[in-house]
Design a protein that fits this description.
α5 crosses α6 (about 185-195). The strands form 2 sheets. Strands 1, 2, 3, 4, 5, 6, 7, 8, 9, 10 and 11 form an 11-stranded mixed beta sheet that branches. Strands 12-13 form a two-stranded parallel ribbon. The protein has 9 helices and 13 strands. A hairpin with a 2-residue loop joins β1 (about 65-75) and β2 (about 80-85). The protein has helices at about 10-15, 20-30, 110-115, 115-125, 155-170, 185-195, 220-230, 255-265, 325-335; strands at about 65-75, 80-85, 95-100, 125-130, 180-185, 205-210, 240-245, 270-275, 280, 285-290, 295-305, 310, 320. It starts with 8 loop residues before the first helix and ends with a helix. The protein is of the alpha/beta class. Helices cover about 30% and strands about 20% of the residues. GO terms for molecular function: hydrolase activity.
Length: about 350
């Protein structure tokens, strides 16, 4: 049985705001029974938006005729920069638009390299937007999935990201059912929130190594959710959903994938599951496919044996990647082919 937490959250919050992170972490570790803690988003501090960060590596290769531009968007009380990729193959129209959300400590260029998303987007005529979280909004550049105000419909990061998606989709004439969202870790948790709170704005979402909607409500419960599994009492994803999680993830417990799935099944009842287990890229992969009465694939759930907290099959040029079946390819197939 999990040991119940006993934490003085007001004192933890005071220490975090005072910059006494070591002391705050020690208190949280004690409350969690002394378990080791993964790197975790810190208390956000608002300020002026800096220029988009770079990790000191080359910009991803851009084929002739494609556009890899930088923009800025403001909505829902938020303002962020973003990268936009319009593939050369989409000159006569795109197949869809993907909102791709990086994980903690990453930025759009780094995430684009690691996921190899630009090559996949070129092959599949997919427009991709990669917004940048700022260190002013979160000290580790994590999306603030653990704060309820950022899952609201009328303000916060989820509302901002949805407005950004709507705006770019309008500019490129992309219908709601061809708008997609995906992310890794904190980005995966935010993609789940988008699929739950703004389900009508997205045809599908993908969560790689993320957490369920409503998994936490403050700093202490966020640590607990990551290490032990988040509660799944919030609304589940209402659009089509792809879940990917590694069995060896020591940063975000695989129990969180269970919770993301159970939330979605409650919101989308009556689905029929069939197993499609396979050995892919040297990993055993347990796959569950859930279809509705018409045969439409509504939920696909991948559990990848031996994978830690990293983008499966990602390129080593980017951070937080590991060998394995390509999550990027699985995501593209699910988004563009899975509803057929």
């Amino acid at each position: 049985m999990t040991k119940p937490m006993s934490m003085n959250m007001s004192e933890i919050t005071r220490l975090m705001r005072a910059g006494q992170l070591t002391e705050a972490t020690r208190m949280i570790q004690t409350g969690l029974g002394g378990s080791s803690l993964p790197q975790m988003p810190q208390m956000p501090q608002m300020g002026q938006m800096p220029q988009m960060p770079h990790q000191g590596r080359a910009t991803p290769a851009i084929p002739e005729g494609a556009r890899w531009t930088m923009g800025q968007h403001a909505a829902a009380g938020q303002a962020r920069q973003y990268r936009l990729y319009v593939p050369a193959s989409a000159a006569d129209g795109a197949e869809g638009l993907l909102l791709l959300l990086h994980g903690c400590t990453q930025d759009p260029d780094d995430f684009a390299r690691g996921t190899a998303i630009l090559a996949a987007a070129e092959a599949r005529r997919m427009i991709v937007v990669l917004p940048a979280q700022t260190a002013q909004s979160n000290m580790n550049k994590c999306w603030n999935w653990f704060e309820p105000r950022h899952a609201a419909t009328d303000g916060g990061e989820a509302a901002f990201l949805t407005d950004l998606t709507r705006t770019l989709a309008h500019d490129h004439a992309i219908a709601p059912d061809r708008r997609f969202a995906a992310g890794l870790s904190a980005g995966g948790a935010m993609a789940v929130i988008l699929g739950a709170v703004f389900a009508d704005d997205f045809g599908a979402v993908a969560c790689h190594s993320g957490l369920p909607n409503g998994a936490a409500s403050d700093m202490g419960s966020a640590f607990a959710a990551m290490s032990q599994g988040g509660r799944d009492g919030g609304a589940g994803v209402g659009c089509r959903l792809l879940i990917l999680h590694g069995s060896a993830d020591g940063t975000v417990s695989p129990r969180n994938a269970d919770a993301v799935l159970s939330q979605a099944l409650r919101r989308q009842p009556g689905l029929t599951r069939r197993a499609a287990d396979a050995r892919l890229a040297g990993h055993e992969v347990r796959i569950g496919r859930h279809r509705d009465a018409t045969g439409t694939l509504r939920i696909e759930d991948w559990r990848i044996a031996g994978l830690g907290h990293a983008w499966s099959g990602g390129a080593p040029e980017g951070s937080h990647t590991a060998p394995g079946p390509s999550a990027t390819d699985a995501m593209m197939r699910f988004f563009l082919d899975g509803a057929d």
